[in-house]
Design the sequence.
């Protein structure tokens, strides 16, 4: 039965994801394993056996693609005015992909540090939240073709003079989400990481002088400055390799992965991806 597009949070689902998030955070704090994002908290759902992959037939039978997203990460996934409808770049692309699959998109919101736990627990079929492709994630999950390509930037306050490169992070404190791709980059360059829930908190700590820097996607900083005006921040350095961001699915969701990639190819060819990108960023950042 086809269900209408819903942006509601299901109470029991939210509690379950929140519990899983706490488990993931607890394990991440004591993790010392090397490699990828697992070194800083990882994307695993607390070590339990992940749910089986989602088949395309299951989604089409239900008429719904359930999408995990943050809901507080402008301009990618956020609520207009803080309490309005869920919208954003990733939200619109997920909706367009769902349309190509012949189903509706239904969104489940959760904090970023619990989003992979929610995926593994089967709370949703796919994650749309600027998930950077890296070898660790490619080993653990099915990752689609990228739909965003943009550089990572090292952000400091305007009066900072002793940080002008990523190497200068050695011994400094950088505010990062434990399960973000940027955590790994900060750690690799010798930074002490202050765990935060998202970019807004990272910026707040930076402006208060409680951390020395933060690393994030350049598009996130541009959106923040557009919304907030003068922020007292500047870009100290830009990463050599751009971030390539994609949808993440549970391992074994191969038919769904193929269908999503086919949908992205169609949306790229007919100009839909570029149109959504230009709406939010004024340029095409999809390739």
Sequence:
């Amino acid at each position: 039965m086809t269900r209408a597009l819903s942006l509601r949070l299901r109470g029991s689902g939210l509690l379950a994801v929140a519990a899983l998030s706490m488990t993931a955070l607890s394990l991440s704090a004591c993790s010392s394993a090397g490699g990828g994002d697992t070194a800083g908290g990882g994307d695993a759902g607390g070590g339990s056996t992940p749910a089986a992959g989602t088949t395309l037939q299951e989604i089409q039978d239900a008429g719904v693609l359930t999408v995990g997203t943050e809901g507080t990460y402008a301009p990618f996934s956020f609520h207009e005015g803080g309490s309005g409808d869920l919208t954003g770049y990733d939200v619109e692309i997920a909706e367009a992909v769902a349309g190509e699959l012949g189903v509706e998109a239904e969104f489940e919101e959760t904090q970023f540090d619990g989003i992979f736990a929610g995926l593994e627990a089967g709370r949703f079929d796919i994650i749309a939240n600027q998930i950077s492709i890296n070898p660790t994630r490619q080993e653990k999950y099915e990752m689609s073709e990228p739909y965003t390509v943009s550089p990572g930037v090292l952000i400091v306050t305007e009066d900072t003079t002793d940080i002008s490169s990523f190497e200068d992070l050695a011994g400094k404190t950088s505010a990062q989400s434990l399960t973000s791709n940027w955590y790994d980059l900060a750690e690799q360059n010798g930074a002490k990481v202050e765990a935060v829930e998202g970019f807004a908190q990272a910026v707040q700590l930076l402006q208060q002088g409680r951390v020395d820097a933060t690393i994030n996607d350049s598009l996130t900083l541009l959106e923040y400055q557009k919304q907030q005006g003068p922020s007292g921040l500047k870009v100290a350095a830009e990463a050599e390799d751009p971030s390539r961001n994609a949808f993440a699915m549970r391992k074994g969701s191969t038919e769904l992965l193929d269908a999503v990639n086919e949908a992205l190819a169609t949306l790229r060819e007919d100009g839909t991806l570029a149109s959504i990108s230009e709406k939010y960023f004024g340029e095409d950042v999809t390739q």
Observations:
- The CA atoms of residues 76 and 89 lie 4 Å apart.
- Residues 152-238 form a domain with the D-Maltodextrin-Binding Protein; domain 2 fold (CATH 3.40.190.10).
- The chain has two domains: 11-149+243-281, 152-238.
